[in-house]
Amino acid sequence: MSFKKTYILFLMLFAGSMVLAQNAKLTTTVSKNKLGVNQRLRIEFAVNKQGADNFKPPNFKNFTVVAGPSSSINQSWINGKASYSHAYIYIIKPKKTGTFTIPAATIELDGKKLYSNLVKVTVVSASEVPKNPNDPSYIASQNVLLTTEISKSSPYVGEGIYVVYKLLFSDKVGLRNWQMNEMPQYNGFWNQDIKVNSVDVKNITYKGQKYRSIILKKALLIPQKSGKLTIDPIDMDIVVAVPTGRGDFFGNAITRSVSYTTASAKRVVRVKDLPIEGKPEGFTGAVGQFDFIVNATKDVLRANETTQIKVEVNGQGNMKLFELPKITTPSELEVYTPEHKEKVYTNSKGLTGKISDTYTVVPEYKGKYKIPEVSFSYFNPKEEKYKTIVSDAIIIDVINGKTPEVASSESNNTTVKQQVTANANDFRYIAHNTTFKSIKKDDFFKSNLFCTLLFLPFLAIPIGIFLGKKKEQRAGDLVGNRLRKADKLAKKYLSQAKKQLGKKEAFYIALEKALHNFLKAKLNIETSDISKEKITSLLQDRKVDEVTINEFVSVLNDCDFARYTPTTNVQMQQEFDKAKTVITKIDKQI
Questions:
Q1: What's the 3-state SS for 362-400?
Q2: pLDDT of residue 6
Q3: Could you say which residues of the chain have pLDDT below 70?
Q4: pLDDT at res. 166
Q5: Least packed by Cβ within 10 Å: which of 12, 65, 383, 484?
Q6: How far apart are CA 548 and CA 539, in angstroms?
């Protein structure tokens, strides 16, 4: 080995020994200890010794992680002194003002855990960006903004409005990327997202300035209480392409990317109570513009035939938040539990479509039966007054059946005696002469069929006993019967969702309806009461355990979010199985 190689090897070994000789430390450093709530902070956790592993950052509970972690390794030897550093870097943004202590991060080295030092950071009110026309951050702040638009600032309780969040930017800058940090909350509102299909850039004028506009998010909001309600803003991190004032070889403008954080303004909605004056007695909370129809598939039928009576409301308004009126039928008509159907679409105009209850009616006796008029009341916010629609009465004409009087006499086992009158013509069709013909046939008593029929009862007896014991055993299995009943119930409510497997939008709409219909039938609650908080409260009152309640609410949340995110057929099948399981659990516990 040459002297040069030996010398280099010696230097490397010496540098390594110097690094190993250092005391292992995990150090926290920040770019600044005081910043505005609209600014960002660079925080770095660095370990000074090789071999460390399993790094765990602290809980940034008062901050939002904007970027990171990124990793950086630096090893040097200066003036005979070796140094080593492995850094984990985050970019964080404060959520609110105040003085906060960033907890220690940890890392493991040679079986021991190292803790970093604590760091205090003071967050003050939003700092103004210096008005420097050459500063990229100032240019971004002057050419990019977020807006929150609402269709109506003073609606009635139950009246739908919509909110639109827009990103505006002038033609002086470009956009590289953007990210929404937190989803807005709509406390006090029933809400439904309106799908934004694609990024559509439009030219608009806002406060006298020309901008290009992108719709980020749209939602339908229906206030559930009166008073002052706040619509939360959105908070975004945007990468803005700011021109540098220089051009490339071909004359194209050279831009510089700068990170910019901004938020839209809060909007306040003042919700009015529905007027008390003129409120109909049967009003159940319907607000909008509706038509009301009650009809029967047929009104002339025989006894024990069926007819369907449909009660339907169609139009535009808070379609999912009120109860349909019920029909009243005579006791002679057997009426089954109605089948509830909803075909409702969400758009910027609100909830549009129709909902219906279909009753199956079976008459037992001959006669004419009247199903009385049914009334439906709603509040029209445009005209600011209540309206009531009354349907026509339906007459069911039952023919070719028993009358109630005959049925009653038969049920009492009474016999009505009648006088028999003899008539000479009663016997005029009796034949006086007969002709017999001999029929030659095989002897039945010696046939295989006779032997089979003879021994069949002896074979049927043990089979009957076996089946009887099985039926008795199944009837005594209370737990098994409950599970089978619950499984059957789950299949009943989820049948429509199962048909839509593979069709993302239709599947999640059908799955959400199935869960809501299950609760309506099981808990006998009004549609207007169905919110996630109300569901949790009602299930807790029925002694359903917290795990099952959380699973049910989780499936509802998945239905909300999955419509607007990529979803595979496998994920849809998993959601279906999860919904089936949770329905079975709730039915068993209730």
A1: EECCCEEEEECCCEEEEEECCCCEEEEEECCCEEEEEEC
A2: 52
A3: 1-22, 77-80, 127-134, 182, 245, 247-253, 404-446, 474-493, 521, 523-531, 560-567
A4: 92
A5: 383
A6: 9
The values of phi and psi at residue 43, to 5°, are: -125, 135
Q: Which residues contact 402 (CB under 8 A, 6 or more apart)?
A: 303, 364, 365, 366, 410
d(CA 55, CA 74): 17
Tell me what pLDDT residue 17 has. 44
User: What is d(CA 510, CA 477) in angstroms, rounded to the nearest whole number?
Assistant: 33
**Burial state string for 444-479 with b = 16 or more CB within 10 A and e = fewer than 16:** eeeeeeeeeeeeeeeeeeeeeeeeeeeeeeeeeeee
CA–CA gap between residue 139 and residue 440 (Å, rounded):
114
Sign of CA dihedral 91, 41, 179, 191: positive
- Listed in sequence order, the residues at least 6 apart from 455 whose beta carbon sits closer than 8 Å to its beta carbon are none
From CA 354, how far away is CA 286, in angstroms rounded?
A: 13
Q: Rounded CA gap, 310 and 302, in Å?
A: 20
Measured between alpha carbons, how far apart are the two ends of the chain, in Å? 84
- Chain length of the chain: 590
Tokens of 372: 């009385």
Residue 526 has a CB neighbour count (10 Å cut-off) of 13
pLDDT for 415 = 45
Between vectors from CA 376 to CA 372 and to CA 379, what angle results, nearest 5°?
160
Contact 564, 218 (CB under 8 A): no
Cβ atoms of 401 and 334 within 8 Å: the answer is: no
**Tens of pLDDT along 345-376?**
887 777 899 999 999 998 888 888 899 999 99
3-state secondary structure of 349: coil
